[in-house]
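Possible regression after last week's pipeline update?

I re-ran a chain I had predicted before the update to compare outputs. Posting the input and the new output here so someone can diff against the archived version. Not blocking, just want to make sure nothing changed silently.
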Amino acid sequence: MASKIEQAAEARFGLSRIQIMGKAYQIVKKMNVKHPFRDGTAGKAWFARFRSRKESLAIRKPQKTLTGPQPNDEKGSCRFLFC
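New output (post-update):
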C-alpha cells in the first residue's frame, strides 16, 4: 500500500489521510481479512501505526493548483500550458 501511495505522489496525485484510511478498509474488505475497522474506514490509531512503520511517507494537506487564467495572465499564455 505504501508503494501505491508513493506512486500516486510521484504522479502529483497526493492522497489525504482520510483517503488512505478509506482505501485500507476497501483492501481488507476485498481480501476478506478480519479487521477491527468501523464505519467503512480504518481508524486514526491504525493510521498512526502505519505512518510509524512507513517513515518515508509524508502526508500533506492538498493544495489547489492553477485551474484557469489568472487576472494578471497575458492572453493566450494558458494555451501554452495545455498544448
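Follow-up from reviewer: compared with the archived run. Residues 2-61 form one domain. Marking as no regression found.
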